[in-house]
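Below is our example:
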Amino acid sequence: MAPTIDVPETVEWQGKRVPVWSMQTIDYSLLLSQDPAEVDRVLKACLEEGYFYLDLRNIDGGRMLSDQQETLKLMNRFFEAPIEAKNEFGLISSHLGYEPLGSRTGAFGPGTKDGYEMLKVSRDEIQRGSPKVPAPIKNSGDLKVLENAIGSCNTITKIILSALSTGMNLTGAERFENSHRNDRPSTTTLSMMHYLPSEVTGAKKVGHQKHTDISSLTLLFSEQWGLQIRPPGTCGAREMGFVAPKPGCAFVHVGDSLRFASGMKFQSCIHRVVPFDPTEHRYSIAYFLRAEDDTMFVDSEGRHVTAGQWHDEKFKAFTDPWQWQAMAPKSMILGGMKEAGEDDPTEIDSFVANPVAAEVAPERIQERSQEVSVEA
C-alpha cells in the first residue's frame, strides 16, 4: 500500500505554484544510540521515500555543523581563485579534481549545460596523507578542514548504514557497513559545488540535471533553496518539488548502490538542482558514501555488477552529451526508479532567468562583488 502523503506547502517559482515536499526528520543522537523507535523511523523513510532530514543539533552532531561552516569558508576562498589555479590538475579521476562550469547536461535537458563548478576530494586520497588537490587548498590550512569534514561525514553515514542494517535484521558480512570499510578502495567523495548566477552563466547553463545518485548514501548540506526531488509512489501525480533548507539539519538520501544492495527495497531519490533565485551564488556540500569497488550486487536490469563498474558506467552517462543520454535506458540516469506524474517542461525557453522573487525566500550567503572567471 502506498504511503499517505500530506498536502505539501507550495512556493512560487517560474510563474507557478510548486510543492515543498515534507519528510521525516531523524534525530542523529537517537540513531547513534540505536534507539529502536528511531531505527524503525529511518528504515521506514528509506523504504517508502528514500530521503529524510537528519537533525544534527545535538552534542553528537555539532562537530559536523562546525565542519560545514568551515568548509563553506574554504569554498568561498577556493572558488574566488583564478581558473588556472582551480584547474591546476583538472579532473584527475571521476571522484577527484575540479570540474568547470558546463561539464554536464543542465537541469532542463537538451540544449542546456550545468550551471556549477565543482571540486571533488576523495576519501581514499585524503587517507594517503598527501592528497593531490589544487594549490589554493594544499598550500593553506584548508587541507585540515577537508580532513575534518570527510571524517565527520564518513562517521555519520556509517551510523546511518548501521541503523539500516539493524532495521533490516542483517547480521555479519551481510550488514551494509561491512561493504563500506575505510581500508578498501572505493569512490567515496566529498563534492563542493558552486552554482553561479545566470548573469555569469547565461541562460543555457542552468542547474544540475535530474538523476539518482551512484552512491549508497548522500549527505547533503545547503543553506539555500534550489534542490528539487520527485517522491516515489503511485498515489497521484508526484511532480518535482523543492526541499526546504532546514537549519541544523542535513538532507540524506538513498543512492542506487544501497537500493541494489537492499534487493530494490529502498527507494533511490530522483532529484535535480534548479535556480530558485538566478541572481545568487549557491553553495552546496555533498558527501557520497560509496561501497567498496569490488562489492557485487544486482542492478535494476538484473545484471551482476560491481560497485566500481556501476560508478564508472553511470559517471560516463552523466558526462555524455544529451543526445547520447537520450538513447540510454532510464535505468542508468535514474537507477531504474519509475516516475509518477508528468515532468514539468524541459525546454530551455520555458526557463525565466530573472523571475519575480519567490514567496518563500531562502537565506542567502553574501554574494561576491568581484567578477567570477569560469571556463565554458
